[in-house]
Design goal:
The chain is mostly helical and 505 residues long. The chain has helices at 5-9, 11-33, 35-55, 57-70, 88-110, 112-120, 125-146, 148-155, 164-171, 177-207, 213-223, 245-260, 264-284, 287-308, 310-336, 348-355, 362-380, 399-404, 418-452, 455-473, 480-492; strands at 78-81, 84-87, 228-233, 236-240, 392-395, 409-412. Helix 9 (164-171) packs parallel to helix 21 (480-492). The longest helix is centred in the last third of the chain and has 35 residues, at 418-452. It is globular. The model is unreliable at 497-505 (pLDDT under 50).
Length: 505
């Protein structure tokens, strides 16, 4: 069902990735105080990345994926000129695409037919082409209707889909594809572990109100788009990092692994990891994450009941509840740690009030106000949408908006309602084909799960469904965080590469 041997043997590799990520965070924090360091570190990383990517494309891909998984918006370092910021994420993307294109053109000139046939075998290639057509159409309409600047900056996140081509290039190196997938798993585990540790460290620092450091951390996090740290009352702070969505996916996949594992030692370690992930999801205070998790777990329990019996379902429910109880205790322990003296309090009332969507809260009221405007706009642009960069104005209750606008009217082309955003930019047919890709992938993964009883397929199915649910309220599938996960899932676990995770170790 799952081979854990390579994970156990590569503990040092996971630890090394954690150390490197920690060093990057420290250097980023230092660059907040000394801006020249931001330029120096950005330049050094980009130069090193270029050299490694030219030498081996897969090495560059490892770095690119690590950056994606561990950093929310990609601005851990950035290049700024005239008010424009080039994020490290975009710089890495540009380099890896450029290096891939040079390799592709060299191969194409040498042997055209064999080169093209390789990429025609990309999983669901025809479906991707149709989606690319509607994305391009959305860009053209956006430039004509909304101006080049808004259209391009709204569109550029979708360029992450182009990584499917260098990813396919790497996996077609048959002697290396298995090792590549194992390394991606190690990077994923290390990055998710790092996100959890970072969330808890930030929680500790803000709960204990360490002078000077807390102030700098807050403004560093905001300036570098690393996440959101919000005071929730009683000294407690919400620690929300957009990359915590990978903790959601990991919880579902790891819980599926626990369900189908029979080795006690492995099951024990999986429960510990589940508890850490649960603590991250709790302190994220993200209703979208909670909804996606609830839907994913409900479907997991239903599948287990129907396919494997009530007893297996009941055990899995118990483990999930136990993990969240321990996760809550981890959060409480971090907050109440006696030294230095804690200034915060945290209880279940905080969670229950956050889960109540009827609460008169600025974020909720603003989101519903936006929805009304979007529905009206979509009714007049049902078929083709308005293209990228389409702006809407709506009354916002966000304090930051009210500081700049007396009437609270906010104009933007970036919308919280992810699926409606896609509809407005790509039109109804673009939305349908995007959903169709999910349908085809989910159907094929379900067939693979029924035939093999391999937990990885069930975990990935439920993760993708959770991603689709989260995207209703928080946009991820028009952003590298969601697109990157989708590409990894679709390509790495397609029928073309079936060898991974075959036997339980």
């Amino acid at each position: 069902m799952i081979n854990f041997d390579f994970i156990i043997k590569q503990k040092k590799t996971i630890f090394l990735i954690l150390i490197l990520l920690f060093i990057i965070e420290v250097l980023s924090f230092l660059s907040y105080h000394f801006p020249i360091l931001n330029l120096i570190f950005f330049s050094l990383i980009v130069l090193l990345f270029l050299v490694l990517t030219i030498y081996k494309l897969e090495w560059g891909f490892y770095i690119l994926i690590t950056e994606l998984l561990a950093n929310s918006m990609g601005y851990v370092f950035y290049l700024e000129s005239g008010g424009f910021k080039l994020s490290l994420r975009i710089a890495l993307w540009l380099i890896i695409i450029a290096v891939f294109l040079s390799k592709f053109l060299t191969e194409f000139i040498r042997e055209k037919k064999a080169c093209l046939s390789k990429y025609l075998q990309i999983p669901y290639f025809k479906n991707w082409l149709v989606l690319f057509f509607f994305i391009l159409l959305g860009l053209v309409l956006g430039i004509f209707n909304n101006g080049f600047s808004d259209a391009f900056f709204d569109f550029n996140a979708w360029l992450y889909l182009a990584l499917i081509f260098p990813l396919a290039y790497i996996l077609n190196l048959n002697s290396f594809s298995q090792k590549f997938k194992e390394n991606i798993i190690l990077i994923f585990l290390a990055s998710v572990f790092f996100i959890s540790l970072k969330s808890l460290v930030l929680l500790f620092l803000f709960s204990h109100n360490i002078p000077v450091l807390v102030f700098d951390l807050y403004y560093w996090t905001r300036k570098y788009y690393l996440g959101e740290i919000t005071a929730m009352g009683s000294g407690f702070h919400r620690i929300f990092l957009q990359s915590q969505i990978y903790s959601l996916f990991s919880f579902i996949i790891i819980l599926s692994a626990w369900t189908f594992s029979s080795i006690k030692k492995i099951r024990f370690h999986l429960i510990l990891f589940l508890s850490l992930l649960a603590s991250t999801l709790i302190l994220s205070f993200s209703r979208s994450f909670w909804l996606g998790l609830f839907l994913g777990l409900a479907l997991l329990f239903l599948v287990l009941w129907i396919k494997f019996g009530f007893k297996k379902m009941l055990k899995t429910i118990f483990v999930s509840i136990f993990s969240f109880v321990v996760g809550f205790l981890i959060v409480a322990l971090v907050i109440k740690f006696p030294w230095p003296k804690s200034t915060a309090d945290f209880d279940l009332n905080s969670l229950s009030s956050r889960a109540n969507i009827s609460v008169n809260e600025s974020a909720i009221s603003s989101r519903w106000a936006l929805l009304e405007v979007m529905k009206e706009d979509l009714s007049g642009n049902f078929l083709w949408g308005r293209g990228f960069g389409a702006r809407l104005e709506y009354p916002s209750s966000d304090p930051r908006v009210l500081e700049q606008s007396a009437d609270g009217i906010y104009s933007t082309y970036a919308f919280e309602w992810g699926w409606f955003d896609i509809w407005l930019k790509l039109g109804i047919f673009g939305l349908i084909f995007y959903l169709f890709i999910f349908w085809v992938v989910l159907k094929n993964f379900w067939i693979n799960f029924k035939n093999s009883k391999n937990f990885i397929y069930l975990g990935l199915i439920l993760s993708l469904i959770s991603l689709m649910a989260v995207n209703f309220f928080t946009p991820y599938l028009n952003h590298p965080l969601g697109i990157g996960f989708l590409l990894l899932v679709v390509v790495l676990w397609s029928e073309k590469y079936p060898k991974f995770f075959e036997n339980e170790g």
